Amino acid sequence: METRPEKASILLIYTGGTIGMIENAETGSLEPFDFCHLEEHVPELKDLGYTVSACPFDPPVDSSDMGPEGWKKIVELIAGHYHGYDGFVVLHGTDTMAYTASALSFMLENLGKPVVLTGSQLPIGVLRTDGKENLITAIEIAAASEGGRPLVPEVCIFFENSLMRGNRTRKVNADNFNAFSSYNYPLLAYAGVHIRYDLSQVYRPALPKPLRPHYEMDRHIALLKLFPGMSMQVVRSVLETPGLKGLVLETFGSGNAPRDEALLSLLKAATDRGLVVVNITQCLGGCVEMQRYETGKRLLEAGVISGYDSTTESAVAKLMFLFGQGMSAAEVKDYMNCSLIGEVTIPAQ
């Protein structure tokens, strides 16, 4: 049974994005509001009974500009305030929120408290905004506990009515309020009249350990999406990028690619040089099964490894994280073949 600790303390980290904007009464333009006066814009927060402190980025960062430096700053804020708060809510622009959530899930090793990312499609100062409901519910989830233990001690995204594992989530709609979805993993909670948690789906480590924050992410990663008639010159230019260590290869269906000898030769040469090539599907849902068709088997023979049911965002962040820890290509391949924090489903062998 969920409890609502009246004295729960939540740290609100505003990185930027639509949710933190209000309309300037004189100019009509949108501008960030002062989070020190959050309750003036969201008076409903007083009724929650929690202690909510705000820590905004200065200046705010558009989500299109968010990357490893921004992720590092979020991790530093969470790690620095970890023992002073019961949970954390990160307000973030929607465009790259799934990348940030995936990255944080790896960078915050041994996380034992909720880190809930949310945002909005309309500014919080607009009459029809979805921002207030997303913010209030995210704070409730970050504060929710049972027997003194947080209900959802992992990095997740709350949007519209759904609480999703962060590294399983993708942005799927630029216009609707239900902008995010988790195709390959069930919801952690659904917020209707009541917030209904599916605790069987929540990630909990077998043995609680002290938080171990990580700050280094390796940028020498690329993403290549295959399409019919693709020029091998384009493929070669990507695979032969100086310093490249890892590549996420978006293929067709269950992990298939053209039986083009030039393509397979380029991939084989790249993996022989030590490039880690991870195969994920372009489909929104489903899993890579390279043994299923001959076209997939040829990729296996070329040294490509499976990304199983990973999202693009999670696969990119995981490669950046693993190489950021100074691992060799062989070590990275081993870790890509296992689930670190519930980011991927590895089939039983």
Set down the secondary structure blueprint.
Elements (H helix, E strand, L loop, with lengths): L8 E6 L6 E3 L6 E3 L5 H4 L9 E6 L11 H13 L6 E5 L5 H11 E2 L5 E4 L12 H13 L1 E2 L2 E2 L4 E5 L2 E4 L4 E2 L8 E2 L7 E3 L3 E3 L14 E2 L7 E5 L6 H8 L6 E6 L9 H12 L3 E6 L12 H8 L3 E2 L5 H13 L4 H8 L13
Parallel strand pairs: 1-4, 1-5, 5-7, 7-10, 17-18, 18-19, 19-20
Antiparallel strand pairs: 2-3, 6-16, 8-9, 10-11, 11-14, 12-13, 14-15
Helix pairs in contact: 2-3, 3-8, 5-6, 8-9
How would you describe this structure to a colleague?
With 349 residues, the chain is an alpha/beta fold. 26% of the residues lie in helices and 21% in strands. The strands form 6 sheets. The chain has an 8-stranded mixed sheet, sandwiched between helices. It is globular.
Could you write a compact summary of the structure shown?
By secondary structure, the chain is α/β, with parallel strands linked by helices. It is 26% helix and 21% strand.
Q: How many structural domains does the protein architecture include?
A: 2
* Major β-sheet profile: 8 strands, mixed
- Spell out the helices and strands N to C: EEEHEHEHEEHEEEEEEEEEEHEHEHEHH
Strand content: 15-25%
Give me the Rg, rounded: 21 Å
Low-confidence parts, pLDDT < 50 over ≥5 residues? none
Quaternary structure state of the chains depicted? single chain
Give the CA-based shape.
globular
Helix content: 25-40%
CATH-level-4 superfamily name of the largest domain: L-asparaginase, N-terminal domain
Helix vs. strand class: alpha/beta
Mean pLDDT: 92
Would you give the CATH topology of the largest domain? Rossmann fold
Number of β-strand runs: 20
Distance between the termini: 37 Å
Strand order of the largest sheet: 4-1-5-7-10-11-14-15
Number of helices: 9
Q: Mind telling me the CATH class of the largest domain?
A: Alpha Beta
CATH architecture of the largest domain: 3-Layer(aba) Sandwich
